[in-house]
Amino acid sequence: MNATEQKPSIAFYSTKPYDIEAFNANNTAGFNINYLDAHLTPKTVKLAEGHQAVCAFVNDTLDEKVLTALKALGVQTIVMRCAGFNNVDVPKAAELGMRVLRVPAYSPYAVAEHALALIMTLNRKTYKAFNRVRDGNFLLDGLVGFDVHGKTVGVIGTGKIGEIFASIMKGMGCTVLAYDPYPNDAVKAMGATYVSLDDLLAQSDMVSLHCPLMPATYHMINDASVAKMKKGSMLINTSRGGLIETQAVIDGLKTGQIGALGLDVYEEEGDLFFEDLSCDVIHDDVFSRLLTFPNVLITGHQAFLTQEALHNIARTTIANLEDAFASRTSVNEVK
Ligand code: NAI
Fold first, then answer.
1. Are the CB atoms for 52 and 74 separated by under 8 Å?
2. CA of 157 to the centre of ligand 1 (A)
3. Which one of 55, 69, 294, 310 has the lowest number of neighbouring Cβ atoms within 10 Å?
4. CA distance 248 to 221
């Protein structure tokens, strides 16, 4: 057995070509990475047999059943190549003595800038203009936008991404309102004002979600909160789909209470995103309804997808694996 074969091996689920490129370029520790197309589910957990660690992504399943099966196969370590860990049963992992590490920050700019891209695309309707001009249709009817300068933007969750998003919007000349149970001094220093969630919803022309999904934030945008929003305002979600009760925003779009909706995440995205379903029938009627609105723009969980972010994700994940196999403590451990 040569030196490479003795390195720990990693079952790498939900692999995409850009993952292979980034991880091969950053695998300085020489881990044996087994790139698997499959998502991690109770059915595919067997593929982890013979590996010491599992590397997983946002729509992999790491519930009690999967974690117990992984443990029985000898897997000791879970490395999430993302920031969110709402799909991991962390208490169960702790009970099983398995370590869970993640990449808390890899490029907050990537996500904050994508939120801006959704806002500007919806506002100036460049998605329509692109098709019109290619079709030789140079009419401007229906393309009227608004100056973002001077508008009020509400930022829900002012951690790493929310802070950068707030500073981008400040730079565009917006009044920034913020809501977070743990206010951020840097956000206050840039001149943003912390207000109650109700005040933020009532006053904002654009609302952008940047808080994590957890029991307290699940469906924080629901019928009641949509009713509190300023009529015709824009809602942006680049955080996690479960923050929004989708039927409530569909109802809000139908009445005009919500003027435009930009989503990079969707509550039931696990059955859709990251796959080519262009030749398939989509069975999710709620998602299909969203696609019928002219003022809804959906991207398939790509806010993180920049060269810089992929590089940082790979580098930190390899470092997390090195810490785990050397039994070192890590600030990236999820507890
Ligand atoms: P962070 O942990 O730095 O900030 C989250 C903030 O939300 C914290 O300030 C926290 O106090 C606040 N918060 C907690 N409960 C809240 C509540 N009930 N209401 C309002 N705010 C609340 O996280 P970071 O790095 O800024 O990421 C935010 C979220 O963005 C992540 O949880 C993740 O779900 C999402 N994300 C999405 C990506 C994508 O590709 N679409 C990529 C990376 C992250």
1. yes
2. 6
3. 294
4. 8
Q: Is the CB of 87 under 6 A from ligand 1?
A: no
What single letter denotes the amino acid at residue 284?
D
Q: How confident is the model at residue 5 (pLDDT cuts 50, 70, 90)?
A: low
Q: What is the dihedral of CA 58, 59, 65, 70, to 10 degrees?
A: -60
Residue nearest to atom 42 of ligand 1 (CA): 304
How distant is the alpha carbon of residue 172 from its chain centre? 24
Length of the chain: 335
| 289 CB-near residues (< 8 Å, 6+ apart) | 250
Query: Which residue, 234, 294, 295, 289, is CA-closest to 266?
Result: 289
**Rounded average pLDDT over 161-167:** 98
What span, in angstroms and rounded, lies between the C-alpha atoms of 150 and 306?
29
Residue 110 to residue 167: CA distance in whole angstroms: 14
Q: Closest Cα to atom 9, ligand 1: which residue?
A: 159
Sheet holding 99-101, edge to edge: 32-35, 9-12, 53-56, 77-80, 99-101
Closest-lying ligand 1 atom to the alpha carbon of residue 86 = 34
The reply to whether ligand 1 has any atom less than 6 angstroms from the CB of 279 is no
Q: Report how far ligand 1's centroid is from the alpha carbon of 19 (Å).
A: 23
Domains along the sequence of the chain with CATH: 3-106+306-325 (3.40.50.720), 108-298 (3.40.50.720)
DSSP state of 264: S
Ligand 1 pocket check: which of 82, 180, 308 to mutate, most ligand atoms within 8 Å of Cβ?
A: 180
- Whether the model clears a pTM of 0.85, i.e. scores above it, the answer is yes
- Residue 2 scores a pLDDT above 70: no
* DSSP notation for 56-122: E-TT--BSHHHHHHHHHTT--EEEESSS--TTB-HHHHHHTT-EEE--S-S-HHHHHHHHHHHHHHH
Going by alpha carbons, the residue nearest to atom 15 of ligand 1 is: 211
What is the band of 3 on the pLDDT scale with cuts at 50, 70, 90? very low
Residue 173 pLDDT: 98
Q: How far is the CA of 84 from the centre of ligand 1 (A)?
A: 8
